[in-house]
Amino acid sequence: MENYIAQRLQELHNSLPKHVELVAVSKYYPIEDVATAYRAGQRVFGESRAQELCEKYQALPKDIQWHFIGHLQPNKVKYIAPFIKLIHAVDSMKLLREIDKQGRKYQRVIPCLLQLHVAQEETKYGFSLQACRDMLQEGEWRELSYAPICGIMCMASHTDDVERIRDDFRTAHGFYEEVRETYFHDNLDFRYCSWGMSSDYTIAVDEGANLVRIGSSIFECP
Ligand SMILES: *Cc1c(COP(=O)(O)O)cnc(C)c1O
Fold it and tell me: Of the four, 11, 37, 79, 160, which is 20 to 30 A from 138 by CA?
């Protein structure tokens, strides 16, 4: 397993373009596997449950950059605010306000990505394009200086249809460009396009991703 994880990380780093950052998604995988990936040089990890993340944070080296990638309940922000590096899936103003509040409390700026709902399934979280436009237009986010909006995140439809997946990522990228021109043209911090998982990251990279979130293809020996 040790060799497998190191080898997969190496392969991924060799195949990803230089401008694409790999988030190794370690949710549900044991601390030993994260430590193995760490020894192989990986420093950026993604988790999607606050409690599991806090346990791993405490057990593992402190130079790991932890990203929160899943749905986050506002009442859990306080547990991760002292150390979280980036929150990928902000899907409400309520959550953004809470991140700002906790960031202020801990005197840490916590970069945030807005989660877009582009997939066809109804169950997934995230802003619709129009709800996201409305939120940005309303403008309150500008005052939340401890929770700056630094990009867009999405998940593609759960399907084998490659063209539909591509369409979802294209929609997200088009939206990212629109929002960047409208609200962030003078702001270089708005720069993250977080899409692509084990099954679809090559399509995601083709369609403008610069953060990919890959778990099972690193941590699960086939
Ligand atoms: C689990 C998860 C991933 C990684 O999925 P894999 O198929 O294991 O690569 C990426 N993004 C989110 C939001 C996840 O919850």
Answer: 79
